[in-house]
Write a structure and sequence with these properties.
Shape of chain A: globular
Strand content of chain A: 5-15%
Strand order of the largest sheet of chain A: 4-1-5
Number of strands of chain B: 0
Structural class of chain B: mainly alpha
Strand content of chain B: under 5%
Distance between the termini of chain B: 171 Å
Helix content of chain A: 55-70%
Radius of gyration of chain A: 25 Å
Largest interface: A-B, 53 and 33 residues
Number of helices of chain A: 12
Shape of chain B: rod-shaped
Largest sheet of chain B: none
Number of helices of chain B: 2
Order of helices and strands of chain A: HEEEEHEHHHHHHHHHH
Distance between the termini of chain A: 58 Å
Number of domains of chain A: 1
Helix content of chain B: over 70%
Oligomer: heterodimer
Number of strands of chain A: 5
Largest sheet of chain A: 3 strands, antiparallel
Chain lengths: 356, 156
């Protein structure tokens, strides 16, 4: 399999950036399979192996991983908030319900600030966008190698777990917003929308083509900037995680156990299991610390020692850098979700304004 | 960087989740938030009203106490006046009574004096007779000398 053991740097990166694609291979395409080459007699829907097949599929393909994770996270959002909605009452809220109400009030206030017209859609839309994108971005904080490796062990070749690093996902949402923008522009302004497009900067009939060009560019720039901003930020963040992982993956084998014992126990390249054990142990240490069983200093010492044993000095350095970047990334994750939400509200607010 | 069907998949999913949020999440939570807001507002209003009423009641109480105080002082004044009046009256009555008792005593004394005088007169007349008898050495017939004796008694 192409993605089985990504040996070189570029293969590793490519493997990480490759979606799990289900699509239609055209007739006459020559597939490279394990048992040899095979020429398709007719167009077939199948999972793609490698980027060449994805390219051959063209438009008629779907990113199974992006869709699954984004729908899963969307359902998580629905369940959490529906639960909160059912539990919330006019009595004093507690715990999670309180947190949800905090978010709702926060969004309600942001919407009130930048959206003047009355529309029952805007606030729920903003809430959905904010939480859903936040969840999708948050997947960036899951260790980069964890899920793809586990999925590979389970036999799935590719897995990209951060849906917002998929331009299809971000542009899909941006297009959804764009459709709403067009709808409300036409609904609220009617013919005024055409006027706005044709006579806006220069109010003279001779300038209609110029105006139309400028306004259309401005109009189209909105969904593009909206979708690509989120995609770019998340893609770059994911890329940095991958690069850090890559930089130190070479050194990860130099650890006492990772270098020797692990190779003995699990064979080359399967230190994922060791990492999983380490991860669980670190979680246990943190839990012990939170329960006041061991001091914070000791927790840090044990954690670092554990990482040094499993990963070696370079692995430890990589882990720490991942941690630092992850902490910084929390900011980006939240900020990008918020920016997407605010811009959506602002664009729709502009669509509701009668006089420009 | 392949744009494909995922784009539309995501659009549809997006629409569905927004619909769900709009129908089952947002209004429910917002309603309960508004209800709570109203509840708190009502509570605050009620508290304010209660405070105001309390202040009013306090004023009322103060006023009533003042009223009662002034009334009490009026009553005390009246009572004092009445008391002094009664004392005056009693004094007058007592002095009248005393006067009356004095007069009665005086008249009784006078009566007694007269009686005593009478007695004395009688005794004197008897003494005179006895003396006269002694002088005459013979008993004077009181019957026969009655007129004389009476005359003497009259003269005494």
């Amino acid at each position: 399999m192409a993605g089985d053991n990504p040996a070189t740097t570029s293969e590793y990166i490519q493997h990480h950036l490759q979606n799990l694609v289900y699509g239609k291979l055209p007739a006459g395409y020559e597939r490279e399979l394990e048992h040899g080459r095979e020429i398709l007699s007719e167009s077939t829907w199948t999972l793609a192996h490698g980027s060449g097949e994805v390219a051959a599929m063209g438009f008629w393909a779907i990113h199974v991983d992006s869709m699954a994770w984004s729908i899963g996270l969307g359902i998580l959002f629905c369940i959490l908030f529906r639960f909160a909605a059912l539990k919330s009452s006019s009595d004093s809220p507690k715990g999670f319900i309180n947190f949800v109400e905090l978010i709702i009030e926060f969004i309600d206030n942001s919407v009130r600030e930048s959206f003047n017209a009355k529309n029952a859609l805007i606030a729920p839309l903003a809430l959905t966008i904010f939480i859903w994108i936040f969840f999708m971005n948050l997947m960036d904080l899951v260790p980069v190698d964890l899920v793809p490796k586990l999925m590979m062990l389970a036999g799935v070749e590719y897995q990209k777990i951060v849906p917002s690093t998929d331009p299809n996902v971000t542009m899909g949402m941006a297009l959804g917003v764009f459709v709403l923008m067009l709808f409300y522009n036409i609904k609220i302004k009617g013919f005024g929308f055409v006027k706005e497009l044709t006579l806006h900067p220069f109010n003279h009939w001779a300038f209609i083509p110029v105006n139309l060009f400028m306004e259309l560019v401005g109009l189209l720039a909105k969904p593009f900037s909206l979708g690509l901003r989120l995609f770019g930020n998340m893609y770059a963040g994911e890329m940095i995680f991958i690069l850090i992982a890559l930089m130190f993956a070479a050194g990860a084998g130099s650890g006492i156990i990772a270098g020797g014992l692990n190779a003995q126990l699990f064979g080359d390249g399967t230190n994922i299991l060791l990492w999983l054990v380490t991860f669980l142990l670190v979680c246990f240490l943190c839990w012990m610390n939170l329960k006041d069983k061991i001091s914070t200093g000791k927790t840090l010492f044990y954690t670092l020692a554990l990482l040094a044993i499993t990963g070696g000095i370079l692995g430890l350095g990589g882990g720490l850098m991942q941690l630092v970047w992850a902490i910084f990334h929390i900011l980006i994750v939240t900020l990008q979700a918020f920016v997407f939400m605010v811009l959506t509200v602002v664009y729709l607010g502009m669509a509701h304004e009668q006089d420009h | 960087m392949n744009i494909n069907l995922t784009l539309f998949g995501q659009m549809v999913t997006f629409a569905i989740f927004v619909w769900f949020c709009m129908k089952f999440v947002w209004p429910v939570i917002l309603t309960s938030l508004e209800e709570r807001q109203k509840k708190i507002e009502d509570g605050l209003n009620f508290a304010e009203k209660a405070t105001r009423e309390l202040a009013e009641t306090k004023l009322e109480i103060d006023r009533k106490i003042d009223d009662a105080k002034s009334e009490a002082s009026v009553i005390i004044d009246q009572a004092n006046k009445r008391a002094s009046q009664i004392i005056e009256e009693a004094k007058i009555k007592a002095s009248d009574e005393g006067e009356r008792i004095k007069i009665a005593a005086q008249s009784e004394i006078d009566l007694e004096i007269n009686r005593a005088k009478e007695k004395l007169r009688k005794s004197v007349s008897e003494l005179a007779i006895a003396g006269a008898e002694k002088i005459l050495e013979k008993s004077v017939d009181s019957e026969t000398n009655k007129d004389l004796l009476d005359k003497l008694a009259q003269e005494l």
